[in-house]
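lol forgot to send this yesterday, sorry. struct tokens for the thing we talked abt
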């Protein structure tokens, strides 16, 4: 493995615009019986806001822990900011910021004490890099003497982000930073990330929320330890292969059951107020949607074409791959 890693290191370093490069990373647990990652490969450019999007258990946390040198991969190579995650792990730890999915700061320390502690670990001060966290910390300042464990979910996330930023990292890894946070705090958090990107920091963020995918410049859709697609959100949506329809009636649960049993319906999934459906014969439905609706025997039926979302694309890719 060492020879392979050294050979790959020279190749991965060849592009100075790439801040994160992952080549065929695999990881298993429980003596190889559980596959967390299966040959993951991708690159992230300097200053890019890159999203890893997928449900729980897709391998997002395992991938991030490998990239921040907290976990060794079984196979493959990875570089972060020009450094090898195995050979140069000490150097990487000084150049990255990591915000794990689970709140992991010192709960008995105050907000102010946590921030000073993490600054001292990296040989810096809060004052030196205060400009990076100012917009976030001003919201925390009224609670600076409150113990971290007593903060609300949204405030805990803001403090964790401050601590991950206080040494001015080159690359920032955020593992599901908005999980369990209210809608307003989620919006505020993404606005903060946009401001951080303007500082030239490369940001990798993982999320199970498909609506957050559109806030990234590029995304990787992951499921069961594999990447199904990598592109801009618009690029992924543009590749959706079918015409998509939204349909609803007075009896949505019965309608979904009937749609899935209908020979002309290729796929049917529930999306809030509507069900999203595709058809086996695109030409036929284009010529006569009303005749199809007549076969359903439901009241107050409504159907119209829609533009796919990233979630529609994710479901289509899962179905295509037989997952």
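and heres what i got for the seq, position by position
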């Amino acid at each position: 493995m060492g020879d392979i890693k050294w050979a790959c290191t020279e190749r991965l370093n060849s592009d100075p615009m790439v801040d994160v490069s992952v080549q065929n990373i695999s990881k298993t647990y429980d003596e190889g019986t559980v596959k967390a990652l299966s040959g993951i490969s991708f690159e992230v450019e300097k200053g890019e806001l890159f999203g890893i999007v997928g449900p729980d258990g897709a391998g997002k946390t395992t991938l991030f822990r490998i990239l921040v040198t907290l976990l060794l991969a079984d196979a493959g190579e990875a570089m972060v900011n020009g450094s090898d995650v195995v050979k140069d792990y000490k150097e990487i730890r000084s150049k990255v910021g990591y915000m794990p999915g689970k709140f992991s700061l010192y709960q008995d320390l105050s907000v102010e004490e946590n921030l000073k502690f993490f600054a001292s670990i990296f040989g810096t001060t809060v004052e030196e890099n205060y400009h990076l966290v100012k917009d976030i910390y001003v919201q925390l300042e009224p609670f600076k003497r409150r113990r971290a464990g007593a903060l609300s979910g949204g405030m805990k996330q803001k403090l964790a982000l401050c601590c991950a930023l206080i040494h001015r990292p080159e690359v920032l890894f955020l593992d599901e930073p908005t999980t369990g946070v209210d809608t307003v705090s989620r919006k505020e958090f993404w606005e903060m990330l946009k401001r951080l990107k303007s500082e030239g920091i490369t940001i990798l963020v993982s999320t199970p929320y498909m609506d957050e995918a559109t806030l990234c410049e590029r995304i990787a859709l992951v499921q069961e330890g594999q990447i199904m697609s990598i592109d801009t959100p618009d690029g992924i949506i543009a590749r959706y292969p079918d015409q998509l329809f939204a349909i609803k009636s007075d009896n949505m649960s019965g309608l979904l059951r009937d749609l899935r049993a209908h020979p002309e319906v290729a796929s049917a999934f529930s999306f809030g107020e509507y069900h999203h459906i595709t058809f086996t014969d695109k030409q036929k439905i284009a010529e006569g949607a009303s005749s199809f609706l007549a076969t359903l025997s439901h009241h107050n039926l409504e159907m119209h074409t829609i533009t796919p979302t990233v979630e529609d694309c994710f479901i289509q890719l899962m179905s295509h791959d037989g997952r």
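Residues 241-307 form a domain with the Alpha-Beta Plaits fold (CATH 3.30.70). anyway ping me if u want another try
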